[in-house]
Design brief:
Helix content: 40-55%
Radius of gyration: 28 Å
Number of strands: 8
Structural class: alpha+beta
CATH superfamily of the largest domain: Elongation factor Ts, dimerisation domain
Order of helices and strands: HHHEEHHHHEEEHHHHHEEHEH
Mean pLDDT: 89
Number of domains: 3
Length: 350
């Protein structure tokens, strides 16, 4: 049997980043053959990862790559089990490298990424880090000459957003890029899940209506208890429900109330639009929560995002309309496992 020297252990550790004792152990098993020892470490690293397969990776980081000419952008999410590992420099570099590889090579999906040449590198880095780490998702948007594109990654590196807008000209598209970064920042903060109320399924809107109205009613009970002004209780929650007939009825009700208040009919045209706008606002709470274009823009809450984009394009002498956005937030939709620490320690000791 070949003698295992300190130099051999050092060489194996340098090439694999595996713990010292593990390096020594596999070198003994491999009779000093470093290549064989390396394979043993890889195999055991994979086996160790398999034992962690039932653990939930809900921490991690987002990544973003934006072309210098703003023609393309990619966002990714890589999950880890713990935030501690997410702060590891090796993990952070893995996220950056993965984002760049996906931006460059555009794999079709996570399976294709894992099967790629870089996917093998990814798995090797996971073994080094020694925790369950997963490429969860990624997406890319592209832009032609008359499409503006930009993105934003939040300072905590857990939220990444890219946005595109179709413009009337190349000049407008270039001019809109800084504003689209503001829209991406808005999306980061306000968590829209879809572009427009038009994207909502009718059954989903119907299922949400009763519950959301009940929440407002319960909130009003608390507001009344605290002596605060109560919110108007809506009948609807989305613009998709506000048909021409519904809006016509609302307008007639407003006019009837003005008549009951003895407001001169000659000033109704100054009052009705504002009250109708308020009716729409009160009856579109789902849109304002979940649909990007219909949300109040954080930098000017007197405008929706759609209106703010249109106004910004008009200042440039053109037109623009947001066509797509992608927002990734680390851990979104993953149900974290609540651990009983005492039970976990007992299990480890068993």
């Amino acid at each position: 049997m070949a003698a295992v020297t300190a130099a051999m252990v050092k060489e194996l550790r340098a090439s694999t980043d595996a713990p010292m004792m593990d390096c020594k152990k596999v070198l003994v098993e491999a009779d000093g053959d470093i290549a064989k020892a390396t394979e043993l470490l890889k195999a055991r690293g994979i086996a160790k990862a398999a034992k962690k397969a039932d653990r939930i990776a809900a921490e991690g980081l987002a990544g973003i790559v934006i072309a210098e000419d703003f023609s393309k952008a990619t966002v990714i999410e890589i999950n880890s089990e713990t935030d501690f590992v997410a702060q590891n420099e090796g993990f952070q570099q893995l996220v950056k490298d993965s984002a760049q590889d996906i931006y460059d090579n555009q794999p079709a999906d996570v399976a294709a990424f894992n099967a790629s040449a870089f996917g093998a590198t990814f798995q090797a880095e996971v073994i080094k880090i020694g925790e369950k780490i997963e490429m969860r998702r990624f997406n890319t948007l592209t832009a032609d000459a008359t499409t503006a594109l930009n993105g934003y990654i939040h300072s905590n590196t857990r939220i990444a957003v890219i946005v595109t807008a179709k413009c009337d000209s190349e000049k407008t598209a270039k001019g809109m890029r800084p504003f689209l970064k503001q829209v991406a920042m808005h999306a980061s903060a306000m968590k829209p899940s879809t572009l427009s109320y038009k994207d909502f399924d009718a059954a989903y809107v119907e299922s949400e209506t009763v519950g959301r109205i009940e929440v407002i009613k319960k909130d009003n009970i608390e507001r009344a208890r605290l002596g605060k002004k109560e919110n108007n209780v809506p009948t609807y929650i989305s613009m998709s429900q506000l048909t021409d007939e519904v809006l016509a009825t609302a307008e007639e009700n407003i006019k009837a109330e003005l008549k009951a208040q003895n407001k001169p009919e000659k000033i109704w045209d100054k009052i009705v639009p504002g009250q109708l706008a308020r009716f729409i606002a009160d009856n579109t709470t789902l849109d304002k929560e979940q649909a990007l274009l219909d949300q109040d823009f954080v930098l000017d809450d007197k405008k929706t995002v759609a209106q703010a984009v249109s106004a910004a394009a008009k200042e440039l002498g053109g037109t623009a309309e947001i066509t797509a956005f992608i927002r990734l937030e680390v851990g979104e939709g993953i149900e974290k496992k609540e651990e009983d620490f005492a039970a976990e320690v007992a299990a480890q000791m068993g």
